[in-house]
Amino acid sequence: MNRFVISVYVDNQIGVLTRVTSLFTRRGFNIDTLTVGETERSEYSRITITMAGDCYARDQLINQLKKQVNVKKVEILEEDATKRELMLIKVHNASENRSDIMTAVDVFRASVIDYSPTAMCIEVTGNPSKIDAFVKLMQPFGILEMCRTGIVALDRGEQTLFSK
Amino acid sequence: MKLTGAEIIVKTLIEQGVTDVFGYPGGQVINIYDALYKYKEEINHILTAHEQGASHAADGYSRATGKVGVCIATSGPGATNLVTGIATAMLDSIPMVAITGNVPNSLIGKDSFQEIDITGVTMPITKHNFFVAKVEDLADTIRQAFSIAKSGRPGPVLIDVPKDVQVNTCEFEDQGVVEKIPLPKVDEALIDEAVELISQAKRPYIYIGGGAAGLGMGREIVEFARKIDAVIGCSFMGLSAVPDENERFLGMQGMHGHYASSVAQNEADLILAVGVRFSDRATGNVAKFAKNSKIVQLDPDSAEVNKNVRVDLGLVGDVEDSFKRIAEKCVKRNLPEWIKRVETLKEEERKFEAEIAASQTAALTPKMIVQTINELKPARTVIATDVGQHQMWTAQYTTFDMPRRWVSSGGLGTMGFGLGAAMGAYVATGDPTVLVTGDGSFGMNLNELATAVSYNIPVVIVLMNNGVLGMVRQWQTLFFGKRYSQTVLSRQTDFVKLAEAFGAVGKRATNLGEFKAALKEAFTLNRPVVIDAQVDKDEFVLPMLPPGGAIDDIIVKVEKS
Lengths: 164, 561
Fold this sequence. Notes:
The structure holds two protein chains of two kinds. By secondary structure, chain A is α+β, with helices and mostly antiparallel strands. Chain A has two domains: 2-76, Alpha-Beta Plaits (2-Layer Sandwich), CATH 3.30.70; 82-152, 2-Layer Sandwich (Alpha-Beta Plaits), CATH 3.30.70.1150. Chain A is 28% helix and 41% strand. Chain A is built from four helices and nine strands. The two termini of chain A are 25 Å apart. In chain B, 40% of the residues lie in helices and 17% in strands. In chain B, α12 (259-267) runs antiparallel to α15 (336-359). Chain B is globular. At the A-B interface, α1 and α2 of A face loops of B.
């Protein structure tokens, strides 16, 4: 089992995300994360998918995506592509843990974006393993809730999806 | 020229070369029907008894000609009644455009009367679909729909048009027929690789599917087989692609395929697969399918390469072009051992067939019926079927004289497909059309007899009447200890009277002589005819590869109960 990051340019239109996600459901693909947002071209959105699977699943997913009328470009990103994820995590703000939490925030270059006497909300950005590590670190202090965006990723250097 | 949306729909259909549409009016398509009235000299509308019949008719129209079939239905139930027909077309890659009306934009999303999100419903069963929000987009959307339906691997496209879009007006200009987007040509290096693999083969097998059925390459395929000493087999959907009257053709392979065709495919060391998708009904257990063989696959759809079966070489692009280039580059070969082996298989097949025939005591058997149709059918006859045992017998024994004469639901296996599809095929071609059906399938959509009578569509309906749901019953016999749960029909339908009640001709045949006479007459009447042909419920479709089984599991004989 390998992990792949797949980038998809789609028409920025109503219903396109449904077409893509319903394709995953009916073909039985297991998707780990999916993000979607605007791009440098207003007519397109970019969907970034991470999935674990073998080459068969990867090739089928790509070939099935390519057949969609609204899909303009599908590529697997290089392994060394820059990947980022953002997380908001709300933890108990107990006075005996406060300095430990703040040290972690400092070391991870995270930031506290909401603060109350009983809870604080921390924003962390980084590659997914960094986010995982931060979650693990916060567990003993009591996580109230958390929210991860899933991965966004771009290839390194001058290379773009359309130059591939 | 300023036109209403409804007029634009009809004018764009005419622009795209559409001469016949099938449909059913309703509240949200009244405007389209008003436009059809206005342009009735330029476009012919066939009113079916049910929207499902219209969708199958559009499908049959396309299968028989390669043209894009068109059907029209109103919103809500009209639209959902198209669903089975659209899915049938999707699974068999049939180009079709379905147009549905919907409630006006102002009422969308409010669960209004007869409102259904039909683009949502049909998303997984269309190649693509559209909701047209404004009249300015209408003509181009229809043009794009035709382009999508017929380009690449064909398929159905649905266009949902809210009522206000049909009423609003905008400029319309005829832009002519949109051409198919040409498929890319395969790289020469890949063609060379294919030629190399074929040249090394000692037991080559050319495997023809639905993707080749409409291309009219039959003669080239036979010539190529002769050149390299290969044999030809086909999938269910590949029937009629190659004319049957040649020594290379072994017939359909797969679950109910010909023994020689299935075994030869299993023994081949090279399979040249042309427009097939290796359906589970064709391969049986994929782990054991053709495991001694290299596979070279020609297909327009990259997603079909390595989807069900691992292939050694996939040539994605223009199938016809690839085939011709390969055929040209391959040198002539002589493989007498292979040909001898295949002759032995054919001999074994004839033996099994003879054994089955000897065990039959009935005065009329399914095989006799199909062979009589072969014997009496005029040239160019279209053979349509429903789904079940009768369909497999027809697939096994029918001989075809030209491509696009086989109209049958393969992938989806839609009972009730046949009558609508046969009517569509006749409307498209004007050629003699026979529907072979069963009492189960016919019961599903026999309402379309009304349509056949209204428009005098002279479909000859051969009903293999065995009083059971035969295919499921066959499985129950073989795999469920003869527990015939809900497959024995205790209906008392008199199909002769039923045909007459609809205004068609009804005939009954209980033996071969009666059947021959009835069929002979039916071809002369120029009216829809139902021949109630009585067959034994214990006839089995053989041979049979059990579901998930491999070639060693082939069943060639069943002891009668």
